Amino acid sequence: MSKKKKVYIPIRMNILFFIVFLLFSLLIFRLGIVQIVYGDTYKNEIKKTQDVIISIPVPRGQIIDRNGYLIVGNQPLNAITYTRPQSIETEQILEIAKKLARMINKKSEEDIKAITERDRKDFWILKHPKEAQAKVSPLDEAMLKKKKLDKNEYDKEIYQLILKRITKKEIQSFTEKELEVLAIYREMMSGYPLSPQIIKNKNVTKEEMAIIAENLDVLPGVNTMTDWDRYNTYKQENGYAPLASVLGKITTSKEGLPRELANYYEAIGYSRNDRVGKSYLEYQYEEILRGQKEKINNVTNKQGNVVESNVLRKGKRGNDLVLSIDMELQQKVEEIISREIMKHKTASQPYLDRAFVTVMNPNTGEILALGGKLLEADKTGNNQMVDFALGNMITSYSMGSTVKAATVLTGYQTGAIAPNTYLEDRPLYFKDTKKKSSWNTSGFGQINDLYALKRSSNVYMFLTAMKIGGQQTYIPNGPLYIDKVEALKKFRHNFAQFGLGVKTGIDLPGEQIGYGGAIPDEPGKVLDFAIGQYDTYTPLQLVQYISTIANGGYRIQPHLAKEIREPGEHMSELGPIIQEISPKILNKLDMKTEWIERVQQGLISVVNEPLGTGYGMIKNKQFKIAGKTGTAQAQYDGPKAGHPMLWNLTFAGYAPYDNPEVAISVVVPWSVTDKNFSPNLVIADEVFKAYFDLKKNRGEMENSTTIQTIKKQTDTTKNEETIEE
């Protein structure tokens, strides 16, 4: 028995050893395969990295006037930033936010106001995870499981349930310090991973910059940098700045891309928190002013940590936009308008609260000044004058007799009248139509086209309109049987050639075209069209109209941009010209040159001959001014209650009349009277004087194309140069 036992035990041991040997051989074989066949693959997997390209914003280009004066520049700001890694837990970010809250002050009214209800709810969940989870019942979970959602969808549904069930009391329970942490945390969470996000860039103290710099080792992702903010060099202490409404605004880093344009901007390389132009010039020339972002390639490992950074493209601030605006003239125009409004803003003029002046080069379309002022009550009830330059293109009014030059030329064009045609100015009486007469109600008698312009005859224009409408003869107390549709069609077609009733094409968004009335029931309204009392036009259209006559019949597109320049080596220098904005002719009047010249003669007589409607009030005749005065009775549609019939007082003119270089329009709406009251002509006279006085003081030299340095530098700009250097 013992012998058999001895034999049995070694056999079992041998079998066991053999099995171990086989397993060990298989393991060696498998390791060999991994080492030899897949070795490189696994090595690459371990070393696997990812390239992440990010863009760093740069300062915007500057906005400069035609003479080299800086209007809008960039003010350097100390900033604290956070760059979020690709892989990081929200709890870790919260811990960094808590540390930052002990080092910086971020609890201003603006900071707390920026916190949304959703921010508060997300923060409450983060701080109270157990209480948050308790808001979801087992029944809720069972109902959701029945939907057979995948894990992400299920978690999202759970989160939405929690959000809905958080009470107002709970989101209002945060202490002041917790709200400060939240204000920091929400900034850290916005934007893209690996892109620096501004935590604070306003009122950052030297102490805050220093303490952050000293503690960077315990604040992963936090850093300091020099940021920038837009500022207007002409902005006064009370917040007023000339032309501010036209210059437009940019979004803040908190606002980022406008929601309605976010997809478009992101498609062309913007980040969600980029600051962009959101109105008028800043918006219109965004592509020019935005600059070229610095592109950095961040190499990250599998954990999302940056292991290497390479600059792919250096940043370059935006190109500079040189405007056609003359800021010295702009300021003088605004002073003239303000003074005239304030002088007449009395109890006897309760509705007169605004006035507009557009100054343009009639040969190039360059806008030299765009003045608009609005008198409105502030929060304390006191009247204050605010910028309303935009009113030149977004508000429209009945312009009255200023359009009579277009009526006369339309008469020539349609064959209704010819140059030197005489018509009798007398009161007109039609069946079922109100009496029609000139301002001189007894009439001027037999007059020709030039005298009609000089004395601003309404009846001459009425009779011309009748002929255009197919009624060649006036029959006292007879019917007015003109073809209303055909007459208005011909008028509007011809008026559009001057820019009246159509967009001028100015390089600003939001231009309005005014109001084109429907075909009226009363044929007398068509006659009113001929004297500028039916359709409404903008002050900008009015200056384009008078410019078209001044330059011999070419409708020029008005524009505010004059040049686009590369950035200079320093902020105080202008770089080379990239593009000059050339005059653009929109159309040429389909009218004979001699017709236009005859109407020009009529406009000269308005200002320079006795009995001309502008002769007495426009005193600076040495400047050889030509133009047309206007008054229009129209129903008030302003901000005050009621709709009384008021008077719009207007003027459109140019100078010198033998070689026009400047054209202006003046619109003063809503006067209660037109008798012995001519603020429109006072403003026009002073604006022409301001223009020519500036020209004389500058030695009659146009220097806008040869400027090399940017003038009127402020202390902040000089500081920026120092930082840049």
From TrEMBL:
Example of a GO cellular component annotation carried by this entry: plasma membrane
EC top class named in words: hydrolase
Membrane topology designation: Single-pass membrane protein
Listed EC numbers: 3.4.16.4
Protein name in the entry: serine-type D-Ala-D-Ala carboxypeptidase
Organism name: Heyndrickxia oleronia
Stretches assigned to the Penicillin-binding protein transpeptidase domain: 356-672
InterPro entries for the chain: Beta-lactam/transpept, Beta-lactam/transpept-like, PBP_dimer, PBP_dimer_sf, PCN-bd_Tpept
